[in-house]
What does this fold into?
Amino acid sequence: MTADAAELLALAEKTAREAGDLVRDRREAVERMAVAGTKSTPTDVVTESDTAAEALIRTRLFAARPDDGFLGEEDGSVAGTTGVDWVVDPIDGTVNYLYGLPQYAVSIAAQVDGVVRAGVVHNPASGETWTAVLGGGAWLDGRPVRVSACSSLSLALVGTGFGYDAGRRARQAAVLLEVVPAVRDIRRAGAAALDLCAVASGRLDAYYERGLNPWDLAAGGLIAAEAGAVVSGLRGAPAGNDLALAATPGVAGELTALLERLGADRD
Ligand code: LIP
It folds into this structure.
């Protein structure tokens, strides 16, 4: 089956909205959301909504494209034969979701032969939906978005995040101690996909985080890049688990140099 990026995006967006309705309705139905299990640490939680949403997304995508591959945060990977692989975070910002904070997202990306070609990030709480196809610009609810015009790190509003392991968090805090006086201010919103979309929309001038998984990064990274952001790792590496950075071009170089000097891509 051929892989037209616009068609992949349309399927991803329809599916993300349906999954978003499911998780939002489940959250609004209860005062307190139960933890269904934990993963890497006792604070790395999963809810029944995470697994239900990923199951819905998998069902919808495979009904439309049964021979594609799939990589999901909760239920692992399925190899495909078409060259199209779906990279899915059913709820990015699960801790926010657990606590009822309206900063979580359904993130679905379509990779074609290993390159992200279409991505959608949908915030069910706000209803906002960011979309992009490779080379087609970035969009929020159908309107084009672009990164900010910030040109000095000292004036930059910078997002970041922390891992679930206490030792890594201590290291990330040590890096943050040096970043805070070098920038306007810091925001820690708790959902990487939405942080990346915030850079795309100029709501943040930059974002960096160590330890992101492919499903945190795939869709939001494309959206940020299509909005004009520099999306990379450090020391010439691509954005990935060691370090992911998205920044308006006016501050990307300064922030990259600072994070390299601080060893932000190392424990
Ligand atoms: C989250 C990321 C966030 C990071 C959290 C967590 P999850 O993903 O979106 O940026 O700081 O530690 O990894 O676990 O909610 O899918």
Q: What stands out?
A: The chain has seven helices and 15 strands. The longest strand covers residues 84-92.
